[in-house]
Amino acid sequence: MTGKQKRYLRSLAATMPPVVQIGKNGLEDSVIDSARAALMARELIKVKLHNNSPEDKTIFEELADMLGAELVQVIGFNGVLYKAKKEPKIILPK
């Protein structure tokens, strides 16, 4: 993914609320399943890591690898993931 494409996705995610939240139980199956469902529906999601979570910020990379998604950005305790569909809704610049 090029820098221009990542900038475009970051601009789209700037105003999005987090749709998946990782809490005190860490990265459990229900979190992975909800992230997978959200990616299938939206292509671009924001994930929030709560302060009481035992995980650190590297959890976003692990989640992206599990889902086959691209980690676009990590700011603070928020991460943005992108996974294109076969017929994408989000058209990336070249």
Characterise the protein shown here.
This protein is an alpha+beta fold. Helices cover 36% and strands 21% of the residues. It contains three helices and four strands; from the N terminus they run αβαβαββ. A four-stranded mixed β-sheet has the order 1-2-4-3, sandwiched between helices. The longest helix is centred in the middle third of the chain and has 14 residues, at 29-42. It is globular and about 40 Å long. The mean pLDDT is 93.
Q: Termini separation (Å)? A: 10 Å
Main beta sheet: strand number and arrangement?
Answer: 4 strands, mixed
The ordered string of helix (H) and strand (E) elements is HEHEHEE
Mean pLDDT: 93
DSSP, total strands: 4
Structural class: alpha+beta
User: What oligomerization state is this entry in?
Assistant: single chain
Could you list the spans in which at least 5 consecutive residues all have pLDDT below 50? none
Which strand order spans the largest sheet, edge to edge or round the barrel? 1-2-4-3
How much helix is in the residues? 25-40%
Measured by DSSP, the beta-strand proportion falls in 15-25%
Roughly how many Å is the radius of gyration?
13 Å
Keywords: RNA-binding
Domain CRM: 1-94
Pfam family, one: CRS1_YhbY
Protein name: Ribosome assembly RNA-binding protein YhbY
